[in-house]
Amino acid sequence: MATLPVWANGFIVLLTFLGIAVGAKYVVDSASCLAHRAGVSELVVGLTVVALGTSAPEFGVTLVAAFEGQSAISVGNVVGSNIFNLGFILGSAALFRAIPTDSLLVWRDALVLVGATVVLYLLVALDLHLGKLDGVILLALLGAYLSLVWRTRHEVRPVTTPAPGEVGVPSVKPWRDGCLLVFGLALVGVASHFLIGSATALARAFGVSEWVIGVTVVAAGTSVPELATTLAGVARGHTALSAGNVIGSDIFNVLGVLGVAGIAHPMALDPAARASLLALTAMVGIVFLVMRTGWRVSRAEGFALMALGALRWVLDFAARH
Fold it and tell me: What is the SS3 assignment for 62?
């Protein structure tokens, strides 16, 4: 992408948005149908299958950047992506439609995200190093969390069957939904790959530093699957799947993506990581409080989250050199 002219990279960015939007529609619809057929709540599906799928770009970018010695982009991608998810994505979804929460989502999943972010800060921010032991600790925590989700899967009321003709009614052929889910995730991943390359080339053309590229442009690019999937879910009334996707994706990013990266290729971090990790910890804490107060994320709270996300971008670009 770096050899292409600016206008060509801009065209690729616009084209990949279309591909990601189409893929997200297939992911939401097929995952919802499979949840109905299996009697599993949409929240569990969002926290696991959809969250893992939409975190695929973060996995790819973080690992490739780590092996290429671009530690700033590798870790900055995850940190910035999580801030983007909680600020812009959850905020914009709440602006579209208030998102209800419940005690299980808040006290199990959101609280795990708070704990995981604090652990990441303690492991990485103090010595500016992500090593093999750090990776093992993060992956062990991810395994414990997934085990907890599986053990408590029946504590969430299974999805009720919609009236005939409504979105989410299981199809006659469940294998078709499975194929569409895989196709949707693959389309999202491939489109995101091209989006990241072109967006990064555009950012470098304007003289932005590597850490800022990772924590803003690349982070936003890898978060487009979460954005498309979350908004598509909210538009179709699957708010539990959408909320679970945002929280679950952030958990996978912190514990899974950085866990694998630390084990595969230990790396030293840019000193700017401390400020970004602190901003992420603060954002996670704010989202936890927002989800707990009133047991929903209101439109006003959604606007506030988007404003915080935008403020973080302004601060990053102000110190871009």
Answer: helix
Residue type, 285: G
8 A C-beta contact, residue 291 and residue 112: no
Q: Is 161 helix (H, G, I), strand (E, B) or coil?
A: coil
Domain regions of the chain by residue span: 41-153+209-318
Q: How far apart are CA 105 and CA 57, in angstroms?
A: 25
CB-CB contact of 132 with 261 (8 Å): no
Distance of CA 242 to the CA centre of its chain: 11
Computed from CA positions of residues 285, 35, 52, 184, in that sequence, does the dihedral angle turn out positive or negative?
negative
Could you count the other beta carbons within 10 Å of the beta carbon of residue 291? 25
Phi, psi of 98 (to 5 degrees): -55, 135
Mean pLDDT, range 230-241, rounded to an integer: 83
Structure tokens at 311: 């403020």
pTM of the full structure: 0.82
Instruction: Give the pLDDT confidence of 141-200 residue by residue, as tens digits.
Output: 999 999 998 888 766 544 444 433 444 445 557 888 889 888 988 888 788 778 778 877
CATH class of the domain comprising 41-153+209-318: mainly alpha
Q: How does 66-77 read in b/e, with b if 16+ C-beta sit within 10 Å?
A: beeebbbbbbbb
Of 52, 92, 101, 108, which is closest to residue 250 (Cα–Cα)? 52
From CA 281, how far away is CA 283, in angstroms rounded? 5
Q: Tell me the HSE value of 78 on the side-chain side, using a 13 A CA sphere.
A: 35
